[in-house]
Here is the input.
Amino acid sequence: MWVQLAGLVAFNGFYWRGVGKYLCVPVLNCYACPVGTVACPIGSLTAFALIRAIPYYIIGMIGIVGVSVGRAFCGWACPFGLLQDALYRIRSPKWRLPRAADGVKYALLAVLVIGLPWMLGGSGASGAERILEQDTGSLDYCALFCPVGTLEAGIPGLAVNPDIRARVSWRTWSKLGILVVVLGLMVVSRRSFCRGLCPLGALIALASRISLLQLRTDPEKCTRCMRCVRVCPTACRKVPEELGGKETTAECVLCLECVRSCPETGALSARLAGRVIAMSQGKKDGKDGKDGKDGKDG
Here is the structure.
């Protein structure tokens, strides 16, 4: 959690935002947030799609991060990830999202982040200008859906700016409703936004399949107790039946909860370019997760 808090402060430092706004980092943190210091990759990607230009910088950054450390930024640095972990601690019935929910974020990426902005925009600045002049508003993820923008920018803007309150529309109320639903899902289902609704996670996942940072199981030490599967917040963990098998799906945020909870010393490790950076230490306290309920969501 301390690493997540450090990320929250770093990406919302206010005083260094003049420089940071030119920097895209692989976390969801709204560009319009009053104290935000960095640019949002999804908002930037949409802006390029709107003018039908290829965002080489964003693609390169996401590619380098995905290949280097996979979705580790999702698990360790994203402010919205910290919010999800905090809300899940609230006592309530718990349940896991169905595996089919994992695909929703890929649809959001393809349709609302890239597809519609590209089709409705135009080359150069003309696309954006046409949408603004016709007062139709943009039909994209940030304008229609993004709960991060609503929480970090929309609500503060409504609270302090009379001009924004005067322009409240159906979009405002629909996004507030979406935020309420998403926050509710975070309470009952662990990392539900990461799994089903985050287009940035979908984008990084495409590159993370060949990441240098991977989980590895020692088949001679693993007892197939399945504790690592039960504690996994994104339901991505798989125990390979043979050496070299795939350890996780692309949904793994590399939180290392599985490594910390493994009861067998050296049975599970995280490796960066083949070098061990974390290894199970034989935790045998009978608890399989943070909530102490055998890691089950229900």
Summary: The two ends are 24 Å apart (CA to CA). The CA atoms of residues 223 and 264 lie 8 Å apart. Residues 170-188 form the longest helix (19 residues). The beta strands are 213-217, 268-272, 275-279.
